[in-house]
């Protein structure tokens, strides 16, 4: 009897302390979820964004007099894991807002969960239009693929003088497929030739051998190859293409801008051209200069565009919380939707009716083993 | 399709197939002797590529010293895994061993993520292996010649070891009946440890070759090759070493030809391997070269 009483007492104590813990935490801390691939095929991209978010958290650790705590959830570069990770942030961690994810497919996997849980979510670099379409709670601080695809088609047509193109796309990645479609659409319009796309080859995430696809493309002899996809596969594609004797330019999208792309591709990726969001050579706002300086000091390397976007997503949420004066998620959502000309590290952010940012694209090239600035393209 | 194009595809296929064959040999050897599908094989293969990465890229040891070192280290790792995860289960039902193997696989994957991070790393391939040779219009990586040679040397070495040496005789005895072998004076712990060491050694050879062909390594890189080489081993008749080589070539060339001739089905490339597995299991469950064995009760 005595023993049972003691056990009961202990249990009561446990429950009581558990509750005080909760109440204390909720009153002093604002939780922001960071929903990114920390492991798996997209890890390098995800980690760059996390670096940007952490830096922003270090520079701006408080809002409304409360400390901001980052809750990092690894979506493991996998659509199923992404849904689980998002559900954990929404239901268990009960975060005020979420940042992420690198990779449109992963972001889309979280779409319904954040909408139903009414947690405002700001994507950093997920560029597929479907991420925010029909979802009141998903926003992003980057431009979207129709614009990016058009920019690259324009580049191929006017700067490279290409008349015939081949595509090799990561077929189970919504980002890559979307980008390829918009590229084909624009390229056909520019050349006025419905048969200007000689081949569309597919591959899966995680594939390592592309020799068969590339051999087929080589036989078609295109002027340019558009290869939107993940940086690791893309680096392998380019190096295998060069080994097969394909010499035409190979161009892609923003996902390429990671150190791993250069490390894996080595001299083969020299001359690879892609569109992205931001270049340190042309800082746009005061926040850009602040970000670049702090990033270099913190990580001892040059910031990538996605790191700047992760940073922007964080400061945008913080600014919206400040304006809303509360952490109420619905009010916060409305405040984020009203964002106009907000000075971020990667340019001014104005969100349109879909929650997408309208901003410039930057074109970069791999030169001497580094990313170099090539051009800036204004939105139409 | 022109002849040149076909030859290029064929060369790509042989190159991939011999790589599958190389890894499948290790798989099938462990199965042949212990009747255990070592699901950790793919992860031991992954560990070998990391050893090579640290040897060459981090410590700057030249490749001709690093590679033998990697083989020894990986063999030691295989024997360590055996001592920790399989030896305590000696005499337990086969299914427990299988589950233990899956556990080891997850453990190695997650350990690598914790220790080395989930970000892919470049494999430091020496240029003398990755150079390209032009034969007519067909571009062939030098590696394409080396991999089948390495595969056949491994095959011959292994067949010799198993059929002509005393250790091999002990292995065959263990594969027939562990208890009787023990009664006859075979040290079964030592023999089984050696089997795993040898299997891991072959995984390391495969890992180095794989790393040079696809110079990108990450903690989960062993999963898909592990599964595919398991399929290759089953196609050839699991437990049969020559069968594993045949299975590897069928799978590698088949995959390339699927993508080459039916580009629309590229997305189903991995499914192709599994469909092949199902077809083989339905029509000839023991595989192409597998012998019929009555299931012991």
Question: How does the SSE layout of this entry go?
Answer:
The complex is a heterodimer of chains A (380) and B (297).
Chain A lengths: L1 H27 E8 L6 H17 L2 E2 L2 E9 L4 H14 L4 E4 L3 H13 L4 E3 L14 E3 L4 H15 L5 E6 L3 H18 L5 E7 L7 H10 L3 E3 L4 H13 L6 E3 L6 H7 L7 E4 L9 H14 L5 H20 L4 H9 L4 E3 L2 E3 L11 E7 L2 E8 L3
Parallel strand pairs in A: 1-3, 1-4, 4-5, 5-6, 7-8, 7-9, 9-10, 10-11
Antiparallel strand pairs in A: 2-3, 11-14, 12-13, 14-15
Chain B lengths: L2 H32 L6 H18 L4 H24 L7 H23 L4 E2 L4 H4 L1 E4 L2 E4 H23 L1 H11 L1 H6 L4 H26 L2 E2 L5 H14 L4 H21 L7 H15 L14
Antiparallel strand pairs in B: 1-4, 2-3
Helix pairs in contact in B: 1-6, 1-9, 1-10, 1-11, 2-3, 2-4, 2-9, 2-10, 3-9, 6-7, 6-9, 7-9, 10-11, 10-12, 11-12
Descriptive keywords:
heterodimer, A: 380 residues, alpha/beta, Rossmann fold, 2 domains, seven-stranded mixed sheet, six-stranded mixed sheet, 12 helices, 47% helix, globular, B: 297 residues, mainly alpha, ABC transporter involved in vitamin B12 uptake, BtuC, two-stranded antiparallel ribbon, 4 strands
Describe the protein.
The complex is a heterodimer of chains A (380) and B (297). Chain A folds into two domains: 10-143 and 283-349, Response regulator (Rossmann fold); 146-276 and 363-377, Rossmann fold. Chain A is 47% helix and 19% strand. Chain A contains twelve helices and 15 strands. In chain A, strands 8-7-9-10-11-14-15 form a seven-stranded mixed beta sheet, with helices on both faces. Chain A has a six-stranded mixed beta sheet with strand order 2-3-1-4-5-6, with helices on both faces. In chain A, helix 2 (43-59) packs across helix 10 (286-299), helix 3 packs parallel to helix 4 and helix 11 crosses helix 12. The longest helix of chain A has 27 residues, at 2-28. Helices cover 73% and strands 4% of the residues of chain B. With 297 residues, chain B is mainly alpha-helical. Chain B has a single domain (3-283), classed as ABC transporter involved in vitamin B12 uptake, BtuC (Orthogonal Bundle), CATH 1.10.3470. In chain B, strands 1-4 form a two-stranded antiparallel ribbon. Chain B has a two-stranded antiparallel ribbon with strand order 2-3.
